[in-house]
Amino acid sequence: MGILSNIFHKIFPSSHPAVQAGPTGSAGSMQSTAASQGAPTQASTAPPSAPMDAVDVEAILNAMPHSQSLNWRSSIVDLLKLLNLDSSLESRKELARELDFKGDPNDSAAMNIWLHRQVMNKLAANGGKVPAELRD
Questions:
Q1: d(CA 68, CA 46)
Q2: pLDDT digit string (tens) for 93-110?
Q3: pLDDT tens by residue, 57-101
Q4: Cα 27 → chain centroid
């Protein structure tokens, strides 16, 4: 299980499709690989499902107990700490690899900003209600 999946497990309810099937839209996913090769994908052959209720990510994160002042709205480190996940540089580099970061992983400031934005985008793409200013 990747770091993004761990984030999803901490935010979405266990019955949520993003937790059940894993995050969609990740680089190198089986679905996008099959589509690029002209193969039918599960999404194109499966019957349409009912729209899922959006999970209010902001409300969930604001309600999480924490013992220190954390700014999850702008800091990937604080977001990971709030979720009780490893926020070390190595863990963030692993998340960057998972999300296909093309920049210099040694430029941790630029990588952290990019990671935070990508995580918020992924949460929104997978049924999370994320404030517009936190995503692309």
A1: 45
A2: 999 999 999 999 999 999
A3: 999 999 998 888 999 999 999 999 999 999 999 999 999 999 999
A4: 12
Q: Which helix (H) or strand (E) segment is 124 a member of?
A: helix 108-125
Give, as one character, the DSSP assignment of residue 120. H
Query: Is 17 in a helix, a strand, or coil?
Result: helix
Amino acid at 9: H
What is the pTM assigned to this prediction?
0.77
At 128 the three-state DSSP class reads strand
Distance of CA 114 to the CA centre of its chain: 12
Closest CA to 121 of 111, 132, 135, 131: 135
Cα separation of 128 and 55, whole Å?
5
